[in-house]
Design a protein that fits this description.
By secondary structure, the chain is of the alpha+beta class. The chain folds into two domains: 68 residues, no CATH class; 73 residues, no CATH class. It is built from four helices and six strands; from the N terminus they run ββαββββααα. Strand 5 and strand 6 form a beta hairpin. Helix 2 crosses helix 3. The relative contact order is 0.09. Belongs to the UPF0763 family. This is UPF0763 protein NIS_0363. Pfam families: DUF2603 (PF10788). It comes from Nitratiruptor sp. (strain SB155-2).
């Protein structure tokens, strides 16, 4: 079956690019099927365009509007969701770490413990339980305001006067 061009770009090129983005090593070997209507409005047929019915990799499905869909196993989708959640959590931690370090902590771990405690408190009190909705910079500024002893103050640092060695 010939896959027509969609908006000047062939669907095969689009599918190959999508496959590469999904980390599929051999995008030319992916399974591609076309979803076709039948006389029965409750039934559709799948026509194999490329690849194999036995392929375990995600399948690419082309609908009648030439839109490309990806069909995958539930395990793969759950793995993807877990990976995204881990990445979001890691990103949040990195942003928190950066915000703490920007405020010159005396002991990073002490500030981290206070920050985690404050985050737990805010999540418990909030209707929205989304960790990502917490303004990290404001959180650290609030900690610095309420616990100034955890942070260095630039005015407290002693520098030798200029011109002396």
């Amino acid at each position: 079956m010939n896959i027509e061009k969609s908006n000047g770009k062939s669907l095969m090129t689009k599918i190959n690019n999508l496959a590469k983005e999904l980390g599929i090593e051999n995008p030319q070997g992916v399974t591609i099927v076309r979803l076709e209507d039948t006389e029965d409005p409750n039934k559709k047929t799948l026509e194999l365009v490329q690849g194999s019915w036995e392929s375990k990799a995600p399948w690419f499905v082309i609908d009648k509007e030439e839109k490309v869909h990806v069909l995958s196993t539930l395990e793969s989708i759950l793995h993807l969701i877990r990976s995204l959640n881990e990445a979001k959590y890691e990103n949040f931690n990195l942003k928190l770490e950066k915000a703490i370090l920007e405020n010159l902590p005396i002991d990073f771990n002490d500030v981290w413990v206070v920050a985690m405690s404050e985050i737990q408190k805010r999540l418990t009190e909030s209707k929205n339980k989304n960790l990502l909705d917490i303004d990290i910079k404001k959180l650290v500024k609030d900690i610095k305001k309420h616990h100034p002893n955890l942070f260095m103050q630039l005015k407290d640092l002693q520098f030798p006067p200029q011109g002396h060695q």
